[in-house]
Amino acid sequence: MAANKAVSFLVLALLLLAVAFPVEVVGGGNGYGKGKGNGNGNGNGGNLQPWECSPKCTSRCSRTQYNKACLTFCNKCCAKCLCVPPGFYGNKGACPCYNNWKTKEGGPKCP
């Protein structure tokens, strides 16, 4: 019985460490940027992790009256580009993929 508790504790401790201190596979990257170019030709996307998109978009869209639409498209763009421009408006040059993604009509896709 004590051995089962010890094994359970060790497994839990390892899981907590894996969540608290994730590591990147050497030479393999994180896998999220594959096939998602950021506009500069290297195909690696931005430098955000997918779970960082929501807080970045919440900040970027915090001053618009169209908050729901802004959040929807910002999160969609971030999921593709792994980048959100700094500030509340503009600065899209910091994220070429985000800046270059256009609608069918040719307008900007990302807020």
UniProtKB/TrEMBL annotation:
Keywords: Signal. It comes from the Eukaryota. Residues 1-20 form the signal peptide. Pfam families: GASA. Belongs to the GASA family. This is Protein GAST1. The lineage of its organism: Eukaryota, Viridiplantae, Streptophyta, Embryophyta, Tracheophyta.
